[in-house]
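haha ok so turns out i had the wrong file open the whole time. this is the CORRECT one, sorry everyone. sequence first:
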Amino acid sequence: MDRRRLALAAAGWLGTAAAATAAGVALIGLLGGTLTGPAGGPLSEQQVRQLLARPVATPPGVPSAPVTPGPTSGPGADDLIRTEGGTLVARCAGGKVALRSLTPAQGYAVDDVDAGPATRARAEFETGDTEIRVEVRCDANGRPVHTIGNDTE
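then structure:
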């Protein structure tokens, strides 16, 4: 009698597992996905352009608030820093610098960011084997000054 109960329990468990698997596969099919990878074929040129036109998500540690205009010169002024890897906006206030926005150039991604406010702020833009490092500090007049380093592997 014990063997019969064990066999029924095993059969019930296997039936339930099979039903759950079938339901999961059916649901994935209804949602348009596949089990082996992305659905569909290659993207058209228009689809690629639409995807590239989407705004880039802000990387962790980077202020996501829009940049509000400040003074155009002197202490507290925004400084636009352009590099091959992307563009930064920095501002000095109270002797500390803060990176207010980062925009990677096409083909680059933001890697390491220390946005401040601090005595030194820095960011890295990467693509393939190239890394562009930007470090920003405040000068004696309370204006952002920067250095740019370039590493190629």
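Strands lie at 78-82, 86-93, 96-104, 109-114, 121-127, 130-138, 144-152.
again sry for the mixup
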